[in-house]
Design goal:
By secondary structure, the protein is mainly beta. Helix content is about 15%, strand content about 70%.
Length: about 150
């Protein structure tokens, strides 16, 4: 009798453990959209700043943008970019320094596109227009913060 009870308990425990292991849902990162307006000025070393909006799960969050770039460049330009945000689990994940190596040339008006990643793995893919003068071959770092 005790042996039968032990077998039943062991079987129930095995079923419970199998259910926990097989049925544990993995977290899936979300996505959103982003709009950015960035002004850049540079002579060898450059600075950029601007504003933007993250839309995540139907809510809009205002953003503050800034950054430094180094490398060969002469620039006075304004870029208006829109795109997607991937691998985001909360609005706070957007914050951080994004890296992208880039080469660009725009005189008067031209296209601009970038793919950037921060330390949390959030990826931003944007495209848009750029007005002004921007001759560059540089490595840029863009800092994004939620406006509070």
């Amino acid at each position: 009798m005790a042996k039968l009870r032990f077998i039943k308990m062991a079987g129930a425990l095995a079923i419970l453990l199998a259910g926990l292991l097989a049925g544990s849902p993995q977290a899936k990162a979300g996505s959103g959209t982003i709009q950015m307006e960035i002004v850049k000025a540079a002579l060898i070393v450059g600075a950029s700043g601007g504003k933007g909006t993250l839309t995540y799960e139907g809510v809009s969050y205002p953003l503050s943008l800034g950054g430094l770039s180094a490398g060969w460049q002469i620039a006075l330009s304004k870029a208006t970019l829109t795109g997607s945000v991937q691998n985001i689990n909360s609005p706070q994940d957007i914050e951080g320094v994004y890296s992208a190596a880039g080469a660009g040339l725009a005189v008067a008006a031209g296209g601009k596109a970038a793919v950037m990643v921060n330390g949390k793995g959030v990826t931003i893919e944007v495209a848009g227009t750029q007005m002004g003068v921007d001759f560059s071959l540089n490595l840029e770092g863009l800092s994004i913060k939620l406006k509070r």
